[in-house]
Amino acid sequence: MKVTFEKTGIEKLKADAYIFFCYEDKKLLDDEIKLIQRLLKTKIAEISLEDFKGKEGQAELIYTNKSRLILCGLGKKEKISMEKLRIAVSKGIKKANHIKVKKIAVEILHDETLPENFEEIARAEAVGCILGNYFFGKYYTKKEKKESATIKEAVFFTEKKMLEKYSKEIEKELKQAVLSETQLTSQEISAMNLQMFYILNLTVT
């Protein structure tokens, strides 16, 4: 899977679907929905959000008049970790594969209260994206294998105000994440994907 970073802003980004991350806390969830609507210049109907609360493990497909959105729940803000973020990304990638997405756009979570810096967050997401998209055939039935569609490209994006400050660092971290995954042995990939398989299938869909 090709992993890139959109340096010119989301306005010029074209993708089959967009992944965004939402905390379970109501105010933070509402703020994220407002941000999504502003960035994509679209409107999200309230009825389409009735079942989505931002809970850990949730990945909800939302249709707007312009885009397909995949909202991934992070759970309570005070309990967030990079591992939970990686799992949330993987859940979003799994959902995208179900609807045959070829090019996915992924928001880089912007949360200055986290101990990890912005570049580390980007790298954690990239790792989750790559592992979530890695197809490990022996863990699936023939029907699932036939229906599975692998994403060809993941484009990471952020708000314009973050581009000038972090653009070079983010590109470096994304490249490093891809390089790290390509250097894993087949046994390491097997173990990581078996763990990911159980996580993705035991959490809320």
The CATH topology comes to: Leucine Aminopeptidase, subunit E, domain 1
Helix/strand-derived class?
A: alpha/beta
What share of residues are in beta strands? 15-25%
User: pLDDT below 50 for ≥5 consecutive residues: which ranges?
Assistant: none
Taken from the alpha-carbon principal axes, the silhouette is globular
- Overall mean pLDDT stands at 80
Broad CATH class:
Alpha Beta
CATH architecture name: 3-Layer(aba) Sandwich
- Helical proportion, percent range: 40-55%
What distance separates the N and C termini? 23 Å
Number of domains: 1
Radius of gyration: 16 Å
**Helix-strand sequence:** EEHEEHEHHEHH
Task: Please give the order of strands in the largest beta sheet.
Answer: 1-6-5-2-4-3
SS element count, helices? 6
Secondary structure: elements and pairs:
Layout: E1 2-5, E2 17-22, H1 26-40, E3 59-63, E4 68-73, H2 82-98, E5 103-107, H3 118-133, H4 142-147, E6 153-157, H5 160-182, H6 186-202
Parallel strand pairs: 1-6, 2-4, 2-5, 5-6
Antiparallel strand pairs: 3-4
List keywords for this structure.
6 helices, six-stranded mixed β-sheet, 205 residues, alpha/beta, Leucine Aminopeptidase, subunit E, domain 1
